[in-house]
Design goal:
Blueprint lengths: L33 H12 L3 E2 H4 L5 H6 L4 E4 L3 E2 L9 E2 L9 H12 L3 E6 L10 H14 L4 E5 L7 H8 L5 E3 L9 H4 L5 H14 L4 E8 L5 H13 L4 E6 L16 H13 L4 E4 L9 H16 L2
Parallel strand pairs: 2-5, 3-4, 5-6, 6-7, 7-8, 8-9, 9-10
Antiparallel strand pairs: 1-2
Helix pairs in contact: 4-5, 5-6, 6-8
């Protein structure tokens, strides 16, 4: 396991704010099509939010066009101010305890085989909103038996009590993204701590050895490749099974600038390294995001789990 380095403050005057020209391999399709339109109508009718829209995901057209989406729970206002994220931040409203029912109803209406659930950070609550995650997992199982559930959770400030609430509902995949290397945490996600992510990811397997654990990293924020590899080694030491690596894309001029674009060859090299050090699944490409090919991951790896655990 790599040693967690002391945070170093990044000098704002040394950050290059000149926009980089987007390379040819970064091409995002505009969302369109009948299935996409139907999903938009469904989301609006049930007053639901998706991280696909809120975070301006570059794969929204592809994923929504194939009938999949990542639901955003706990409202649409985050209590943190990450420099890469386009989700609104501020003081959130009270939790909507009917939200899990609406999400589960939407999952059933879409007849999903794999549902991905994420949320904003809710630092206004001691439990971080963990009970809402547990409620939606259980309700999806009630309404659509056989549908696997992936939860992309916040760090809950490292609270194992909050994590246990989620784990007791037994999601198929427990996902938490570290996002960047420890040296850049203060710049990229100032209210987050690498140690909190370590506590959550390393504890998930202890609470449920059968759960698939997953994490993601963005590149292009000023990190060095060796720093990325060090984080990858940490994630493996914490028992993480699935890794996603994608290019950071600046949502607007007010967000952190792109330090550089990684080439497809560099993404392939990171994917190969991830496989070499023992990840069971690695998605590494310019437009990869946390939920990209999530259904394929759980289908492939759950077969391995059946052999290991007889379930």
């Amino acid at each position: 396991m790599s040693v967690i380095p002391t945070r170093q403050r990044v000098d704002p005057e040394k950050i290059n704010t000149t926009p980089l020209r987007r390379p040819d391999w970064i091409r995002v399709r505009a969302p369109a099509g009948e299935t996409y339109a139907n999903l938009v109508t469904l989301m609006r009718a049930k007053a639901l939010h998706t991280v696909c829209e809120e975070a301006m995901c570059p794969n929204m057209g592809e994923c929504w066009g194939s009938g999949t989406a990542t639901f955003l729970m706990l409202g649409d206002i985050c209590t943190r101010t990450c420099g890469f994220c386009d989700i609104k931040h501020g003081r959130p409203e009270a939790l909507d305890w009917l939200e899990p029912e609406r999400v589960a109803q939407a999952v059933r209406a879409m007849n999903l085989k794999h549902a991905v659930i994420t949320s904003v950070n809710r630092d206004d609550r001691r439990d971080g909103g963990a009970p809402i995650f547990a409620m939606v997992i259980r309700r999806i199982r009630d309404l659509l038996p056989g549908c696997s559930v992936e939860v992309l959770i916040p760090d809950f400030k490292g609270s194992l009590e909050a994590l246990k609430i989620v784990m007791d509902a037994r999601p198929e995949i427990l996902n938490h993204n570290v996002e960047t290397v420890p040296r850049l945490f203060k710049q990229v996600q100032p209210q987050d701590h690498y140690e909190w992510s370590a506590a959550i990811l390393s504890s998930a397997k202890k609470l449920d050895p059968e759960v698939l654990t997953k994490s993601g990293i963005m590149v292009g924020l000023g990190e060095e490749v060796e720093e990325v590899k060090a984080v990858m080694r940490d994630l493996r030491a914490w028992g993480v099974d699935i890794l996603t690596i994608g290019q950071y894309l600046q949502p607007s001029k007010k967000h952190l600038p792109i330090a550089r674009y990684y080439t497809p060859e560099e993404f392939k090299a990171l994917r190969d390294y991830g496989r070499e050090i023992g990840f069971r699944w690695v998605e590494s490409a310019p437009l990869v995001r946390s939920s990209y090919h999530a259904a394929e991951q759980v289908r492939a790896l759950s077969a391995v789990h059946r052999k290991l655990y007889g379930s």
